Amino acid sequence: MTSAAGEEAEATTRASELPIAEVAELTGLSKDTLGHYEPAGLIEAVGRSSGGQRRYASSDLDWLRFLLRLRATGVPIAAMRQFAELRRAGSGGVAGRVALLSEHRDDVRQQIARPQGPSRRP
Predict the structure, then answer these.
(1) Is 57 a member of any domain?
(2) What is the helix (H) or strand (E) element at residue 18, kind and residue range?
(3) CATH of the domain at 59
(4) What does the pLDDT read at residue 115?
(5) Total domains present in the chain
(6) Between β-strands 47-48 and 18-19, what pairing exists: parallel, antiparallel or unpaired?
(7) Which residue range forms the structural domain that includes residue 22?
(8) pTM above 0.70, yes or no
(9) Which of 36, 79, 90, 108 is the most exposed place for a label (fewest CB within 10 A)?
(10) How many whole angstroms separate alpha carbon 100 and alpha carbon 17?
(11) Using an 8 Å Cβ cutoff, are 67 and 27 in contact?
(12) Among 109, 85, 111, 110, residue whose Cα is nearest residue 97
């Protein structure tokens, strides 16, 4: 027999888990893309329902939003994967993450500083 506290904790856990359709809506990523992020190494294995459906925790959603910010600034998928690996390394990967982001920042600054071609006027 389960305790009331155990049932409450289980209900809270289920309530904090989001199905893939809801995460897709919240992030703007397709369900297919979300499904590919896990085997690609961009996100850690997400929880599953008893029926095998993906269930995302709020921490998964936070990480996905961070990945979207990386993507929005033009970070290549390979660098995003490297960043994810460094993140999984915990505090041992901090220096590598800082270096990766610093290098990307420098690349973006160089792109901004490059002269643009003549603008076209309609």
Answers:
(1) yes
(2) strand 18-19
(3) 1.10.1660.10
(4) 84
(5) 2
(6) unpaired
(7) 15-72
(8) yes
(9) 90
(10) 31
(11) no
(12) 85
Give the largest Cα separation in the chain, rounded: 74
Q: Indicate whether 8 belongs to any domain.
A: no
Report pLDDT digits (tens) over 6-36.
444 443 344 479 999 999 999 999 999 999 9
Q: Are residues 19 and 66 in the same domain?
A: yes
Residue 24 within a domain = yes
- Summarize pLDDT for 63-117 with one digit per residue, the tens: 999 999 999 999 999 999 999 999 999 999 999 999 999 999 999 999 999 987 6
| 107-112, Cβ contacts within 8 angstroms, sequence gap of 24 or more | 107/74, 108/73, 108/74
Residue type, 65: R
Same domain, yes or no, for 65 and 54?
Answer: yes
Residue 55 is assigned to a structural domain of this protein: yes
Same-domain status, 68 and 103: no
Q: Which of 74, 69, 66, 82 is nearest to 104 (CA)?
A: 74
